[in-house]
Structures are given as structure tokens and as C-alpha cells.
Write a structure and sequence with these properties.
Chain A is mainly α and 197 residues long. The first copy, chain A, is built from ten helices and no strands. The longest helix of chain A has 28 residues. Chains A and B meet through helix 1, helix 6, helix 8, helix 9 and helix 10 of A and helix 1, helix 6, helix 8, helix 9 and helix 10 of B. The structure holds a DNA duplex (30 and 30 nucleotides).
DNA sequence: CAACAAACTTGACAGTGTAAAGTTACCATC
DNA sequence: GATGGTAACTTTACACTGTCAAGTTTGTTG
């Protein structure tokens, strides 16, 4: 009578979680709501994900994969002839665009205590995203004569901080004033920082 | 028999919330736990704060006040003869130090969906913190010949993004690998960004 | 066909936020 | 000083949550 076999409940639950996340935000997301959306009983998720944290950890892992892909695509599709600085700007813009397109997912990835931050796979994919972003920084350091490893690493981290900080603050601004049209301009030119320091 | 009057339950609840936040993190924080810690019944908080969101909004307001004060103190106590760039660096360091000293409070202020982000007073105090931080940026723009308002604003936002992004990512790193000693060095020099762009 | 394991359901429990109604203590006014 | 009113707090109740334990169905394997 009841279909005791869903086919691919695991995937369905992850999609349901994504949907609920976008509809009600992270605060409205619950294991039971995901189960209901997938059309199964409230305890079904436990069989595929130990806990709510488990489900969201997995969702974050997938999201990081998409995120990395988006960064990589921006880099690969970008004009290879453009300046390194311009390519970095493009990467930053892709970062921001992902955050604006998937705000709840982005917050889950970077600002939620629910996923297990120590999860091995989550750490791995998060590292890949970082690597993808900073892939643009190293050649720029070379070009500018920054060669010692420590300085390069500091440059990577600061560039990442700038881009991530801007994305994070943009999302916060979006939470305050509904949709935000003054961010349509995308990531502002980081060249200004060059003039400042 | 029962003391039906606590004296200053409102304040006691805010302190309890702060304590619970530090002990169990934002996920372990509950209205009932705060009430218990303050020694009152679970429904008592409702009389002073409409809801959990109300309590945390108020806590965030207070935290932003302390935060602004810390930034101001760093600025005032800083060496007035030091370069503007150095003063900005000092401000960034104060920003980071607050985040590291009060990680849970910092996350509550910037990364939690629980406080009411549209609350008028919260917006106001958050704006004050921003003003305090960017107070150092304007003179630096002047010095560098950046005069048009739009560019100055972009500079402010990018500097804020860099500092905030670094603090945010540092806290995330702390969640992954317990305490983090490789951040003892404080905020890295933003001068590197000047070499990059 | 029988046994077994995997997938899912049902039921239960402790914990949560919050609303409503009841109790106590203080405070102003007569 | 008694009285009424109001603010502070408690008690009770309800719907919802995550998670565990035990039961039911289904597919697979011997």
C-alpha cells in the first residue's frame, strides 16, 4: 500500500532541504519539514542522515561543490588576455553572485552553526573553494614581485577576506532592507585598495 | 514566600543570555535556559522581551555598543603621530580582537538570523560601529587624493569588508580547529593589498 | 521458499517558544 | 491604613522540534 521504498530518498531530502531553506530560511528549516516535503514520515531522514546536522552538513558539502564550480567557470570563461587584476575581480564577482543567487545556502556554508564544521568532507570541499579563489592570487603576487611564501599566503587570505567580507555584508544588508538594488553593480573594484595602502 | 519581584530581571536575563551563549553556543541558547539561569520561571522573559528574538536583539544592541566603544578606544588610545595607515591597521586589529574575545557575541551580531535585523535600534548601533571604523578611512582617502564621494564610500566598504571578512573567517577557522594559535599575530598588514593592486 | 537486511513508519519522550489565565507584590489614591 | 489597580511573575497548556526504540513492509540473497 504505502510505498516503503522511495527510490532515492537521500537525494529527495537534500532537495527538500534546499527548497525549505529558500522558502522559510534557515530558522524555518526542520527535519520534519524536509521529511514532509519529500512525502515521507518524520523519522525517515534518520536512516540517511544521522541527524539534522548530518543532513545540513551534506547539503553544505554539495553547495561548496557548486560554489567551487561557479568560481572555476568564471575563471575559465574569463578573458585569458585580460589583466590578472581583472581576472581576480571577475573571480570576486562570481563569489558575490553566488552569494546573492543562493543567499540561504551561502549562509549555511559560512555562517551557520548547524552543519558539522569539523566534518572531513566539508573541510575538504571548503578547502577546494579556497584554492580555486586563490588560484588567481598567486600569479598576481608573482607579477608584483611578492615571492616569499608567507607574504603570498597573507595576500591570499586578505584577498579572500575582502571578497568574502563584501559578500557577507551584502547579505546582511539584504536582510535589513529586503532586496538590495544598490548591489546590482556587483563587486566594487578592489583597485581602490591599491590606492589606499 | 516566592519573590515575585526580582529587582532587575531584564538585566539579569541579558547577562544570563550572554553567559549561556558563551557556555553552550548559540545553538544551546534557549529562553528557558536563560530563565532558569536567572532563577525565574520559563515564561518570565516574555514580560520583558516579547520573544527569544526580542531578547537576542537587545543583547546584540548592547554588544554593538561595547563593540563601538572598543573601536573608539583603540582609535583614541592609539598613537596620534603614527601614520594613518597604521591607525587603520590598529582599528582593524581592535575589530579582530573583539571578535576573538567574544566570538559568540560577534556571531550573534553579524551572522545570526535570530535577532531582528530590521530592528530600528539595532540598525542604529550597527551604523555607529560602521561609522567608528570608517572614521579612519576618510582622512586616508584625503591623503591619497581620493576625493569624490562615491570612491570614498567604496573605499570605506572595501576596507570594512577586508577587516570584517578576516574576523569572520578567523572565527570560522576557530570552529574547525578548536582554539587557533596561528591567529595570535592579529590582523595581517593590509599594506600587502597596496602592493597587489 | 525462507531468512535476512534495508527502508520506512509508528509511537514516545524531553525539550523548545509562546500564548492565556492565575497569583503575588507593590504603589498610588482615598 | 484600607482599597483598588497595575506590573511582575507563575502555572498551565499547546504545537512544534530532534531523536530514539520498536514495529512493518519490501527487496534480495541463500
Amino acid at each position: 500500500m504505502n510505498d516503503y521504498h522511495h527510490g532515492d530518498l537521500r537525494k529527495a531530502l537534500l532537495e527538500a532541504a534546499h527548497a525549505v531553506l529558500n522558502e522559510k530560511g534557515i530558522h524555518g528549516l526542520s527535519l520534519r519539514a524536509c521529511a514532509a516535503k519529500a512525502g515521507v514520515s518524520h523519522a525517515a531522514p534518520a536512516h540517511h542522515f544521522k541527524s539534522l546536522s548530518g543532513l545540513l552538513t551534506e547539503l553544505a558539502v554539495i553547495a561548496f561543490g557548486d560554489f567551487t564550480l561557479a568560481l572555476r567557470r568564471a575563471y575559465d570563461e574569463g578573458d585569458a588576455d585580460s589583466s590578472l587584476q581583472q581576472r581576480l575581480q571577475t573571480a570576486g564577482d562570481a563569489y558575490l553572485q553566488f552569494a546573492l543567487a543562493e543567499p540561504e545556502l551561502f549562509k549555511l556554508m559560512f555562517s551557520s552553526p548547524l552543519p558539522d564544521q569539523k566534518n572531513e568532507r566539508l573541510c575538504a570541499v571548503s578547502g577546494e573553494a579556497y584554492a580555486e579563489l586563490t588560484r588567481v592570487v598567486k600569479p598576481l603576487c608573482d607579477l608584483r614581485g611578492i615571492t616569499d611564501a608567507a607574504s603570498v599566503e597573507q595576500a591570499e587570505i586578505l584577498v579572500w577576506s575582502t571578497i568574502h567580507g563584501y559578500a557577507h555584508l551584502s547579505l546582511k544588508q539584504m536582510d535589513v532592507h529586503g532586496v538590495c538594488e544598490d548591489m546590482a553593480g556587483g563587486m566594487p573594484s578592489m583597485g581602490i585598495l591599491g590606492s589606499l595602502f
